[in-house]
Amino acid sequence: MKTLRFILKKEFLQIFRNKGMLPIIFVMPVIQLLVLSFAATYELKQVRFGLVDFDQSMASRELVSRLQSGGYFKLESAFFSIEKAKKELDNGSVKMILQIPSGLDKKLNEGNSAQVQILIDAVDGSTAGLIQSYMASIISDYNQEQQAGIFIRSSARQQMASINIIPSNWYNPDLDYITYMVPGIIVILVSMIGLFLSGMNVVREYEIGTIEQLNVTPIRKSEFMIGKLLPFWIIGMFDLCIGLALARFGFHIPFLGSLVTILIIAGIYLIVVQGLGLFISTITHTQQQAMFIAWFIMVVFVLMGGLFTPIESMPEWAQQLTMINPVAYFIEIMRMVLLKGAGWMEVYKAVLVLLAMGFGLMVLSINRYKKTS
Amino acid sequence: MNDFAIEAKNLTKTFGAFTAVDSISFEVSKGEIFGFLGANGAGKTTAMKMLTGLLAPSSGKAFVNGFDVYTESEQIKKSIGYMSQKFSLYNDLTVAENIEFYGGVYGLSSKMLSKKTEELLRSVNFTELKDSLAGSLPLGWKQKLAFSISVLHNPQLVFLDEPTGGVDPVTRRQFWEQIYEASDRGITVFVTTHYMDEAEYCDRVSIMVDGKIEVLDNPENLKRSFSANSVEDVFIALARGAKRGDS
């Protein structure tokens, strides 16, 4: 235990003496949370559209003003021919064209159905899908209002039979994208610290040649490994707390579950990613190799971790792969605990998997690290 | 068995078809300064790694300070000091922090540590450099520091792997004075070098050629039996017959 004290002192001295390290520890979490949370959003904002209005009537003006009042669509310019509008769609200055044929007003007033055309730039398929559904909902609102107007004028008394869907969004009632993203981004943050820093630190000893000197000292393998893990575990937990504080007080994310639960699970999760980092360090001998492998794993884990795209919509084989993806487990746990107030009963299975992974990776890397070659 | 600091019998290391160290047998007495010579690629470093517990031997026997290299490598590590040919202190730690770390991992108590640190700094005139980063020292000074640290915990035996490589003659002389001081304190010294004048400072030298120890004697006897003027001439006479090149 005494030896460990000296090892830890040395590691901390080295970490804090490294000029590049302090920004990584203190600035990276803040930047990552701010940038990613605001930028990585699927919400529609200010979609520029072109208008081709052949009707020029009360009804068409009303429809257009409705479109603009929501804040989702912004009229870029009005055109008098569909060809001119299409040109703007081609060069990307508008994302959508709304074409209103002549006779809209007349048809609606007579109680007949009318049609409008929407052309959407669908290079980005998911945005196009969003535009379409937003448009559909705006037009359907408009529709109902028009019908109501007609009923009053024609003093029609009969009730229209219809099924109304009244959505009630649980856990994230305002469908706030940031609420959904921030817990996941905190996971990425902790993963990067855990996966990269400890492993890289071991490989560095190989690169500068000090590993040989360490290997002729009576330092035990476990002491060496703990010396490499603990400082970055503490830094990871510290960054997690920065992230959680920002989430709570900066983004006003609801903390429905217990903070202690989150911290305990994060502690376990950090050991899993650190174990993976250490394992990488035992199969590589330069920081470059280790960095590349760690990045590769990180990108796959993040893309398949359910942060940006729901795991349920992945193909079957990809869903099977997430069974071994610690990032997916922790993102799920974070969202469940923070946003849904889940407790141990709901998450214990995922926590057990993380525990098993952490234990396995640690045993594997301590065994692979050899003082004698 | 306890009469010798090192006892090797038919110690061999093979890497696939290549025999790096070919059945070497020798003893190093306690308190001796033993020069372990050989051309590049002769197998010196491999032999030294087996003796320090860094590399498992393929066959043969070896005991260091009475401990078996196969089964007691951790006990060996406690009882030896080691200085590799590469500077292996931490450049980003200060002189004092390096001393504290290595002293600490060898189990020196804090009281011992501060006493030893002061002694060490004074003996190599490093007192003013105590808080300089090790990386900022000139090479010769680094080597002196590395040596001082390798004997800080008073090991029974210290291994020095080309400790004076790239160092100027004056510093080399000072370095050898340090070695003699350590030897006077009863520490056995096992040293490899390419400087043949340094070989003359040793009590006994062995010369390795192609993985085998060709000769082993004190410098005087060696020169006599080869009717040579210096150990250098003996070395050249032997190394010329080597098949393994400097690659």
Quick summary of this structure?
The complex is a heterodimer of chains A (373) and B (247). With 373 residues, chain A is α/β, with parallel strands linked by helices.
Q: In percent, how much strand structure appears in the residues of chain A? A: 5-15%
Largest β-sheet summary of chain A: 4 strands, mixed
Distance between the termini of chain B: 38 Å
The radius of gyration of chain A is 28 Å
CATH superfamily of the domain at 4-89 and 155-239 in chain B: P-loop containing nucleotide triphosphate hydrolases
For the biggest sheet of chain B, the summary is: 6 strands, mixed
Runs of chain B with pLDDT <50, length 5+? none
Report on the architecture of this protein.
The complex is a heterodimer of chains A (373) and B (247). Chain A is of the alpha/beta class and 373 residues long. Chain A has two domains: 10-40 and 174-368, no CATH class; 47-153, abc type-2 transporter like domain (abc type-2 transporter like fold), CATH 3.40.1710.10. Helix content of chain A is 66%, strand content 6%. Chain A is built from 14 helices and four strands. In chain A, helix 1 (2-17) crosses helix 9, helix 2 runs antiparallel to helix 7 (177-208) and helix 7 packs antiparallel against helix 9 (221-250). The radius of gyration of chain A is 28 Å and the shape is elongated. Chain A starts with a helix and ends in a 5-residue tail after the last helix. The mean pLDDT of chain A is 86. Chain B is of the alpha/beta class and 247 residues long. Chain B has a domain at 4-89 and 155-239: P-loop containing nucleotide triphosphate hydrolases (Rossmann fold, 3-Layer(aba) Sandwich). In chain B, 36% of the residues lie in helices and 26% in strands. Chain B is built from nine helices and ten strands. Chain B has helices spanning 44-51, 73-79, 95-105, 110-123, 139-150, 169-184, 196-199, 219-225, 231-239, and strands spanning 4-15, 18-29, 33-38, 59-64, 67-68, 80-83, 157-161, 188-192, 204-209, 212-217. In chain B, strand 4 and strand 5 (67-68) form a beta hairpin. In chain B, helix 3 packs across helix 4 and helix 5 (139-150) runs parallel beside helix 6. Chain B starts with a strand and ends in an 8-residue tail after the last helix. The relative contact order of chain B is 0.17. The A-B interface holds A 2-3, 5-7, 9-10, 13-14, 17-18, 208-210, 212-219, 371-373 and B 52-56, 73-74, 77-78, 80, 82, 84, 86-93, 97, 100-102, 104-107.
